[in-house]
Structures are given as structure tokens and as C-alpha cells.
């Protein structure tokens, strides 16, 4: 059987757009005499539509789209993901389904069994769980169809330290009794750099365990904060990758089911971690603008590394003609910050403006002087500068339609080293899931492997907010090497202060940092959406109560 793996970039809720993409892929498959074409999880509507699934008209439109797609399946079979109505009226009103269509007719609907409700996933909120296990027979082959999480039954609750399995049953345990010739897994599996190998391991382990080849079709593209890496696969019964689609782009691969066991294993290619992070962030920015109907961006360019890296990513994603920068020096801005910023802007060949905020700063302080009388200058006056800059960026956005990009990194967001309604402004946070140490690594990677675009002085100089004389980040925070290790253990690994102390020592610093993290929850609650590239990003993947006592 000739099988096509169709890896597409879907637009959530844009059923006409998605249907046209799907139909074009079906026609391409027909032209290449494909017997079966496979699309990803919830391909018809895009993943995930969240509360759009509560709208009856939306579900009806999904059904109409499936009917339209089915009309193009003459002499070909299709496996495609879509929401379907749960006619049993038990549990939730919908299923997350894989629909098998052949010769213009829906032959069978297979429903998702394991419904994740952790991290960024919320399937359990919308869908009923499957309890009927059956296979598809087509072209004298038995096909076991699974949907994404259905192969993840052996993962642990809250990570590897727990003995409790996330799920109590395994769909493949039931499906394997039918002795399928191969397993299909349709997925909407988002990218995470520190879990990049886990998906392949899960698929390979299942192929080996059940001695059955697996065909895995993932989507690509970005939907707000979630970025999908693609990387669709065909894996033989020995757990070896024999077909692999490209990452972070659409792709179309063909494999013959009779040849999966004979194909040579793909040679492993060791990629720099930042190759994927860079591609993910570029795609994240690109799709955020494209799918939101925006074209132009603006950001504050300070001469620091965060805004420089954000600019480099934005220019790659949107083109230099669609990105503008505003330099907003004050009396505390060093001369080299302005020259570094202009150097960066000119290297990127973008339009930029210099708006000196010193007069505004002084007028603001003068206006507040009667209220602030008898008090000393402190963080208040520093934040005033950040908020002036935020207001200028938003004014520019309002006037010209350029969408503001937020350049704050994960380290700053974690400890609250940012100003609400100031440098936290923006429609999308580009670096909000990247620690400061990773910002330096990614900047060096871009200069060495993509284009030497970020001035070396920006990379090498000590980081500073430049909101008071001779200010440096190290005045307030520990060295970023130590800070980021504490943050990683607390945020990604979910360790307590005492557990982190056993690893790193330095109890006083650990307690101080964790207090900053917990006290800054109210800021993160109001932060822009953050492009997720790790296993635990702020936002939908990590929700904490603002008023909790830790």
C-alpha cells in the first residue's frame, strides 16, 4: 500500500483554508497513485480550537468541511482528524476523532482514548474518552489508528520522579490483539527543546514492544503560543526511523507499507539545540502575524541583547521592510547603547526612530512632585521610564498599525525584573520562554551559523536596564548562570527550595529567587502570550494562583 504522510500548517477555525489545503494534498496524492493519505489530529479545524468546540455552529461547519473533503476521495482513502459528536450522550458531547474516508464515503470513525489534561493540553475538558477498540481493514491490510496521546500511556504523573502512571490503560494493548500490519498515529504535538527526543523514543518503544511499524503524522506551524515542529515519521518494527519529514515546515512524504521493514534506517544527524529553537521562534513570529492578519512589527531597541535578538528573529520572520524600531534614550542611557542600537538597526536594514525621553521623564517627575514630596527616588522613578517607553511604543502601534513585539526573556519574567505596562507591553513575547543564558547562546548561534548580524559589543557587555546611574543587572540579581539553574530546577523540574539546595547549595540565594518568582505571579498573569519552546513555559503551561501563600 502506497501511503502519503501529509504534514500541513493549519489555521485554527479557518475551515475553508484548511479544507483547501487538505484537498490539494489529496489531489497531489492521487497524482502520485497513493492509496492512503494521512493528515494530523484535528486537521479539519486546527489544534486546538478550545472553547470554539462549545459552539454548535462551529461543529456543524466541521461536519460540512468533512463532507466537502470526502467528495474528493474517489479512488483514494484518507485518515483525517476532526471533532465529532458523541451520540451516546455520555460524558462530554464530542470526540476527538480520526475519520477513515474511502471512495467519497465515511467508513469508520476512531476516537481518541487518552485525553491529556496537563501542561498546555486540555482535551479532557472538551472530549469524551473512547472505550471501543477496533481496526480498519483496507487493501488487505489491518490498520490500528491512534491519536497522539494514545501512544503515551507509560508516561508518569508530574515527571519521572512519580511512580504513578498518567493513564490506567493502553489503547495499543487492545489494538494489538487484532494483529495489525501497521499503526497510524495522527498528532498535534507541540515543540519543546528539552523533550525533543521524547516523541521519537515513545514511537520507537511502541514499535518495538508490539513488533509493528508505526506511521506518525504531526502538524507544523504555530498557533499563538504553541509551535508545532512537524517531523512526521515512518518507523519499522525494530523502532528505527526509515522516513522523516522536515521540521518546522510543511512536507509530503510517501512510503510503501510493504517496504517499511526493508528501508534503511535514517542516519542520526546531531543538530545544535539552537538550530531548532531559532527555527521555532521564527515560525512562531511568522505565523502569529500571518494568522492574525498583521504585517508590520515595532519594538523598542535599547542596545541590549534581548531587543537585538528579538529584532534578528523578527527580521527573519517578517522581512526587514516590515519591522521598525524605536530607540528611546534617557539621561541614564550610555552612549554605546545608542550606537549599539543604531548599529544593530542598520545591520538589519530596518527603519528606526530615535525619541529621547529625557524631557518626558523630567516632566513626569515634575508632575508627580507634589504627591511624591518628602520621598526618596527609588524603583518608582525607574519604572516611570519603562512606562514612558511602553506608551511610546503603543502610541506608534496605534498610529501606524505596527504590532509591538515584547523582548523580555524568561529569567526576567520569572523574577519580575520587568515593568508592568512598560517593558512588558507587546502583543507576543518572543523570548519569554528563553533564559538569559540561552539568549546569549542563541545570539552567538545566529552570528556563527545564520548571519553575523548582532554586534559583538551587545553580546559582550554587562547587561543593564539603564534606569539609574551605572546600573547593572548584577546589582539586583545573582549571575545569570546561577540564576538560570535555580529557575530551571524550580520551574521545569518542579523542585522545592530544599531539593534545589542539595544540588546547588547557596540556600540564601535560592530562597531569595523563589520568593521573587512567587511574588511576581501577578505580573505574569498580565504578560503577553509567550512563544513556547520548552517543556514548561509561563502561560497556559504553568498556571499558579496569584494570591496563594507559598
Stretches where pLDDT is under 50 for at least 5 consecutive residues are 157-164
**Could you give the order of strands across the largest sheet?**
5-4-3-2-1-14
CATH architecture of the largest domain: 4-Layer Sandwich
Structural class: alpha/beta
Helix percent reads 25-40%
For the termini, the CA-CA separation is: 58 Å
Q: Proportion of β residues?
A: 15-25%
Overall radius of gyration? 26 Å
Count of DSSP-assigned helices: 17
**What's the β-strand tally?**
19
Largest sheet: 6 strands, mixed
Shape: elongated
Detailed description of the structure:
The protein is built from 17 helices and 19 strands. It has 550 residues and is of the alpha/beta class. It has 2 domains: 2-260, 4-Layer Sandwich (Nitrilase/N-carbamoyl-D-aminoacid amidohydrolase); 276-473, HUPs (Rossmann fold). The strands form 4 sheets. Strands 5-4-3-2-1-14 form a 6-stranded mixed beta sheet, covered by helices on one side. α7 packs across α12 (436-450). It is elongated and about 85 Å long. The model is unreliable at 157-164 (pLDDT under 50).
What is the strand and helix layout of this fold?
Elements (H helix, E strand, L loop, with lengths): L1 E6 L7 H17 L4 E3 L17 H15 L6 E9 L8 E9 L2 E7 L11 H4 L9 E3 L2 E7 L23 H5 L6 E5 L11 H13 L3 E4 L2 E4 L2 E4 L3 E3 L5 E4 L6 E6 L16 H20 L4 E4 L4 H14 L4 E5 L7 H13 L3 E4 L3 H15 L6 H22 L2 E4 L3 H6 L12 E2 L6 H15 L5 H5 L19 H12 L5 H8 L2 H13 L1 H5 L25
Parallel strand pairs: 1-2, 2-3, 7-8, 8-9, 15-16, 15-18, 16-17, 18-19
Antiparallel strand pairs: 1-14, 3-4, 4-5, 6-7, 9-12, 10-11, 12-13
